[in-house]
Amino acid sequence: MAKIGVFVCHCGENIASMVDTANLVAAISEHPGVEICLEYKYFCSDPGQETVKRAVREHNLTGVVVAACSPRMHEQTFRKACAEAGLNPYMLELANIREQCSWVHTDKEEATEKAIEITRSLVEKVKRNNKLYPISVPVTRRAMVIGGGIAGIQAALDIASAGREVVLVEREPSIGGHMSQISETFPTLDCSQCILTPRMVEAVQHPNITVMTYSEVEEVDGYIGNFTVKVRRKARYVRMETCTGCGDCIQKCPVKKIPSEFECGLGNRSAIYTPFAQAVPNVPVIDRSRCTYFKNGKCAICKKTCQIDSIDFDQQDTIETIEVGAIVVATGFQVQNTSLYGEYGYGRYKDVITGLHFERLASASGPTAGKILRPSDGKQPETVVFIQCAGSRDVSKGVRYCSKICCMYTAKHAMLYAHKVHDGDTKIFYMDIRAAGKGYDEFTRRAIEEDHAGYVRGRVSKLYEENGKLIVRGVDMLLGRPVEVAADMVVLATAMVPQPDAKEFAKIIGIGYDEYGFFNEAHLKLRPVETATAGIYLAGACQSPKDIPDSVSQASAAAAKILGLFSREHLEREPVVATVSDSTCAGCWGCATACPYNAIDQRDITDRNGNVIKRVASVNPGLCQGCGTCVSFCRSNSIDLAGFTEKQIFAEVMAL
Amino acid sequence: MTRILPKNRLDDCIAAWRSAGFSVLAPVRRSDLSRFEEVERSEDMALDLVLTERTIKDHFFPQTEPLIKYSIKKHDIDTQEMVPPERKRVFFGVRPCDASGLAIDDPLFGWDYRDEYWFKRRDNAVIVTIACTTSDDFCMCSSVNLSPDSTKGSDVMLRPLQNGSGWQVEALSDRGNALLGPISSILKEGSDATASTASVPVRFDVDKVMAWLADPASFESHFWKEISVRCIGCGSCTFLCPTCHCFDIQDEGDTYTGIRRKNWDSCSFPMFTMHTSGHNPRNTQSTRWRQRIMHKFNYYRGKFGVNSCSGCGRCTRQCPVDMGITETLQAITNLTK
Amino acid sequence: MIYNPFPMRVVSKREEAPGVRTLKLEFVRQEDHEFFKANYRTGMFGLYGIFGEGESTFCVASPETRKDYIECTFRQSGRVTTTLADADAGDIVTFRGPYGNRFPIEGFEGKNLLFIAGGIALPPTRSVIWSCLDQREKYGNVTIVYGARTVADLVYKHELEEWKHRDDVNLVLTVDPGGETPDWQDHVGFVPSILEKVAPSADNTIAVLCGPPIMIKFTLNALGKLGFNESNVYTTLENRMKCGVGKCGRCNVGSVYICKEGPVFTAAEVSAMPQCDL
Amino acid sequence: MGIQEQYRSEAAGLLSSGAVKLVIGFGEGSTVERRRPVFVRTPAETERLVLDGGCVANLSTYLLTEGLLSDGKSVAVFLKPDGIRSINILAAEAQLNPEQVVIFGFDIEEGQVRALEGRKASDFAPVIGVAKAAGLSAELQKEAELLDQISAAERFEYWKDQFSKCIKCYACRQVCPMCYCRRCIVDVNQPQWVNTSSHTLGNFEWNIVRAFHLAGRCVACGGCDRSCPVNIPLRLINHRMAKEVLDAFDYYAGECAEQKPVLATFRQDDPETFIL
Amino acid sequence: MSEPFEPKIVAFVCTYCTYAGADLAGTSRMKYASNVRIVRLPCTGRISPMFILKALQKGADAVLVSGCHPGDCHFAQGNYHARRRWTVFRALLSFTGIPEQRIRFSWISAAEGAKFTELINNLTEDIRKLGPFEQYHELQTVIETQATY
Predict the structure, then answer these.
(1) DSSP 3-state of E122
(2) Do A142-331+503-565 and A333-497 share a fold?
(3) Chain B residue with minimal CA distance to A2?
């Protein structure tokens, strides 16, 4: 039978003063299966560990219990000692008779009795321990970054600069994301394009980065170190390899009156287009739904125009399969659909716009070349009302959270407006001004003090048009009186919300999301960059509303995590993982549903001729984190957790 | 003139037996279940039942019985054999089918190796049977060569009087005679007419059944699949059967101490014959049902000269899917018409 | 009473093949030993147990000519065998038996003996083999044909070595195709086909055959072809058992209680049983 | 034409067209009142089918007979709304493909049989919706409340008395469509979580574990309760579980084939008043 | 005067929060009743209802199940799953007459050594007042004696 060695540590006086160790040794020595039981002043000391090792060797011990401090303290120490003595390190248990016994009790007799019981039950557990070996998972040292906004670009650059390959996937024709739409950035008011464009170029030119624009992730299989991703490269109808980006085709395209997505509909684009002038790659795409050629087979002016014959109407979508070891999800956000706000007249009044519209109006490369001109008649607005929290922190609109950036960008808008329209008047309706961040509060103060932003604390109750003016009614809560402003333009600080397809995407790649559709981190505080699925990391606003510095920080953090993972060819993981008993699994998939890590797949059991006999659950040891939630779900006890098996725990409880 | 036990003296009778050292067990209806339990007063008895839901087998071959208590020491194991109590017991108001069940099982438990767990109880029990005057749709004693007033397995036979005032008493064995001693003053002489016994129709031809089962060709017949198709494989027919005697031996306890127990087991369960290799000789419900029928009406008779069925009909009465021995044996009878 | 086992002390244990152990057990109590000596004959089986886990049935692998101890060989598979496999010298286990019938080896006297075994079924055969070899003079030629799936799966390797070197034993070893090692010198092929090549004449020969059901089936065919009469071929049947004494009702094949009327049967008796119940 | 005749002829039609290979329905039993499951494979045999107020069993259990549905062919089965919910759960738990199950739906009200519209489990969503809206059985609730009103100690005595009757025949398990495990927890012997012996402790454990395993899965078909040869009121314990998941998690077992198991899912705002 | 009753309490805790909290109580030299025996699991998600039944069989007068606060689970969701199971299992036990006072659930973080101390002391005191769980333990004693028939 088992030969267990039990080592009772005095921990100086820490244990010995409250636990009668001689009694403990005497009682445990009489326990079935205990081959040797020794006490010593400090087993964690070198001579103490030597004693353990010698006993393991001399008595051919099959298991070791050290009755000492918390396993959180010295489990690793003694595991190492066991391993050095030739015993599998997982054949060790620590009986915690210090933190949970001698230190917390005052009656020596009781404490001794408890110490005996604790030790005994762990002897019974260790008898049933199994030898475990670290799980080694090969790592494909190539990363994929999904989303080519600032977060994705940053992550890609960080990983690539450290010498690892990166595939950067962006579904729009150009990388750049929302940051490329922004005029200036707070709190420095430097030009967004000016700081972003070089990074975009750097990314596309980096030898370690493969940029796949106009591409979407369709399928993700595998697990940490070993993902297989299928990416759909949408047909551009323009040959990437040859196009020089001269723009002749765009000039000549007769279909020009298409509202530009990039300009939020404030400007137009043609059917063959690049989203914006600085697009990277600077290769246009043909919008098939708008192109005359695709509608009736006529036109093809672009093809005729192109001097190097880069137009290819026969292009098809292609699916590329890419092997990667880790994935950064940086899919970003979108602006909440403000038509939810009937009371603010969005969609009804042309001059009620969102913050993003305002960015385009203020952008030097925008439709108005940086002049603040209102959409309805192109006149310069004399009075502009900004409404903060237009969507955020509003339960009735389904967004209970704070979008975090609106206070700052509204202040910025007010400043930009003041800089461009010197005699203009601003009113900002706000609930709170949240300006936590380096230089942020100073920034809002500047808006108020230098640029005379007119902050009004209160909500807008009504907005209507009267004599060509937008009448904004609200209450100034600080003064406790109604306010009415006749505005020329109203800017709504709309909420940041997840991408419309965020939930579907999360299901494709197998990560969790919250009630809104923001992706879930593994741990809000301690693992904010990882997802619960090992090997998949988050960066930017796809996780929660973030400003640029936060997005960039998280992107770099994700890159650092991945570089850590890529530092070795094999990933060693604790063998505390679940395993399935094929013969008894009934295939109800409850475990798979319950698993927080998507670590459980379906596996077919086939007979010799390859016919599927049955389908059972199968744990991917690369993904399993060892929580055991699946084990307690399984009605037939067909799944078990190494290190905490049913047999071990049963024995532990039954020995109490 | 015969001896009569007047109904109104039943309490005296119980008292007399109790003071003679007997426990008296009788049909009782308690907690929504009829069964044999110790009684002290006649009013606790439920003598009007056609049949108790549980059989008296329970009291001779309990559903779980401790055999050996063990305690594991470091270098040794202490064991203590658990011996059933040698308690003198009167089973009053047993039906002839249940009484026969005991007699049917006796040879099995005595076959070479004597199972004292059974016999210590058997030897100390006196079976006082009451002949049946009522029956139900499931009773089938007459089909297995027994009858509503069969004396097999009984020590004393009581035949209800027509006027309902008591029972005509007949001792069938020494044990039965001895039991009447303490109540001799309670018994009176009389010549009241006894009630007519229940008429239980013959539901199948047991001879034909036996002949068909004995034919080796029948073993592989498609019949078994058809007849057992709705069997769900529970053990209620076997556990409520007065003659089924299969059991398992299990150790149960904590890490160091426990009890080796003998527990009812059932040929209906797939695990019953499952080898550790995973091979199972009886791996379908039809083979298990065949085993049950074959065992009762072919194999058992071959070993012990008697069919292992006393016709109580509980198997059908309790079956969740309305199966049972009667249906199968009727079908076999029809097969051989 | 009948379910109370004898305590037995483990004397030694041996790993025969992956997952297959042999335990040598000695009696703790003199009276148990006397009972065993008086009753044990080759072919009988017992229930080996560990309190707290239960009992498991296998044959007594030691011969009736050596009754100072009991040897048992088993594959580690269920709850009981897993624990038994862990037993070390000095540990206490239990034995209940000997039960069942036996090989009628008096009747084998003066005859040639052909022993055929497959895989883990050598132990019952081994009991008869030694019972006969220990009284070698009483029998004619002795041929042992033993096969396993792979070389590693052969059990009693040291005894195979001994038999190999005995002049009075003809040992034929074989492993299934694919189960051989590079230095394997003996046969490669399934037992029935090897048997057809090496079997002695059926005349005046008794065959003892133990193995998995599928092997038994094909070997019986082969023996038939070789002219063996079914009543001269002995085999053992093993079914799940709990009581060992004909009470618990699970081991029967057709009307036969393996525990009481077996485990030793002639091929003729076996073929009279309903085959699908085996 | 009554429902029985209508379904008979439809069953015959399905069989003769080969749309289904088998019809599982009810037939005459061993007494006038009894109805037993029958298995009909030919159009002629459909004459055996009976449909009346006595047809209370949940026949979905039989669909799990090993190998029955593995050939991809369809089987027709007579089911009440509870049985249809069972089909939904079994589909959700990947034990069968609901496309292979043709349902002859019916309900019994005051002893009268009423046909239910639909053929596939998903067709009956409105019926199940109505059932959910109507709530759990008021009758059972009343019975269960009687137990809720007494003290814990008295309740313990009540169940001890009831469970002491259990003989571990497993009729409750065998008749239950949800008990499809290849190896029941009670047959797990390494370790032996549930005492297999049918003493009161072992019976307590068995019945508690089974009720727990049925939480959020039991459709209150009453099969176990009816099957119990020793009349343990299993309906009450199962009802109590159904009530708990409905009250705490708004979970009604078997609403649709896409329903996730209640104990394999959670909401962050699940109630937790009892947690210190 | 008979000895005051000292209950036996078994606690099933997750290693990341409650076990660490209990350790903290130790390192902070807080004092609590010695009646509790802790079984360490990786996560509350690993705690199966069977553990509770076995603890009762082994003579526990009360069982404590404790883990990380919602949202704090090291394994992200284990405690949410556990919470559902507990809700159901607790209702079940209560319905079968196992008093709610004897089966307790709590969230104790790694920082809540004081909460752990207080909980153990309160629980021990409550169960001392409630007395031993004889009703359940009797089931165990009964099976050790003869078959009733």
Answers:
(1) helix
(2) yes
(3) B74
**Amino acid letter for position D159:** W
Residue E149 has pLDDT above 70, yes or no: no
Q: Judging by DSSP bridges, how do beta strands E9-14 and E36-41 pair with one another?
A: parallel
A54 by Cβ neighbours in 10 Å (0-12 / 13-18 / 19+) ranks as: exposed
Give the separation between CA A150 and CA A145, rounded to whole angstroms: 11
Say how many C-beta atoms besides its own lie within 10 A of residue A131's C-beta.
12
DSSP annotation of D62 reads: G
Nearest to B68 among C3, C81, C242 (CB): C3
Strand arrangement of the beta sheet that strand D35-40 belongs to: D35-40, D22-28, D75-79, D101-109, D112-115
List, in order, residues 6 or more apart from A515 with CB less than 8 Å away. Answer: none
C105-236 folds as Rossmann fold (3.40.50)
**What pLDDT, in 10s, does the model give residues B83-94?**
888 889 999 999
Dist. CA D8–CA D15, nearest whole Å: 11
3-class DSSP state of A27 = helix
State the residue for tokens 């059926």: C202
State pTM to two decimals.
0.84
A582 contacts on B by Cβ (under 8 Å)? none
Please report, for chain D, the start and end positions of each structural domain, with discontinuous segments joined by +. Answer: 3-134, 138-264
CATH of domain A574-654: 3.30.70.3270
**Which chains form contacts with chain B, at 3 or more CB pairs under 8 Å?**
A, C, D, E
Q: Which residue of B has its CA nearest to A30?
A: B74
**Confidence (pLDDT) at A30:** 94
A113 close to E (CB below 8 A): yes
Beta bridge partners of residue D113, listed in sequence order: D108
**Cα–Cα distances in Å, from B290 out to B101, B235, D234?**
21, 14, 31
Share of chain A above pLDDT 90, in %: 80
* Cα nearest neighbour of B296 on chain C: C255
CA atoms within 13 A of residue A27's CA, in its CB half-sphere: 18
Instruction: Judge whether A75 is closer than 8 Å to chain E, CB to CB.
Output: no
pLDDT at residue B337 in the model = 67
If one counts every other C-beta atom within 10 angstroms of the C-beta of residue D267, the result is: 12
Domain containing B40: what range?
2-335
Query: How distant is the alpha carbon of residue A57 from its chain centre?
Result: 48
CA angle A153, A158, A162 (to 5 degrees): 145
Cβ atoms of residues A325 and A535 within 8 Å: yes
The per-residue pLDDT for range D248-258, each reduced to its tens digit, is 999 999 999 99
CATH topology (fold) of E9-144:
Rossmann fold (3.40.50)
DSSP string, A141-155: -EEEEE--SHHHHHH
User: ipTM beyond 0.90?
Assistant: yes
Q: Which among D30, D35, D229 has the least Cβ separation from residue B236? A: D229
Q: What angle do CA A631, A602, D60 make, to 5 degrees?
A: 80
First and final C-alpha spacing in chain D: 62
Provide the terminal-to-terminal Cα distance of chain A, rounded to the nearest Å. 21
Q: Does A637 touch chain D (CB under 8 A)?
A: yes
Rounded CA-CA distance E68/E13 in Å is 9
Burial class of residue C29 in the structure, from the number of CB atoms within 10 Å of its CB (0-12 exposed, 13-18 middle, 19+ buried): exposed
Do B242 and B56 touch, CB atoms closer than 8 A? yes
Q: What angle do helix axes E49-57 and E78-95 make, rounded to 10 degrees? A: 50
Q: Where are the beta strands (DSSP E) in D64-219?
A: 75-79, 101-109, 112-115
Name the CATH topology of C6-99. Answer: Elongation Factor Tu (Ef-tu); domain 3 (2.40.30)
CA angle A286, A291, A295 (to 5 degrees): 135
Structure-model confidence comparison of residues E71 and C270, the more confident one:
C270
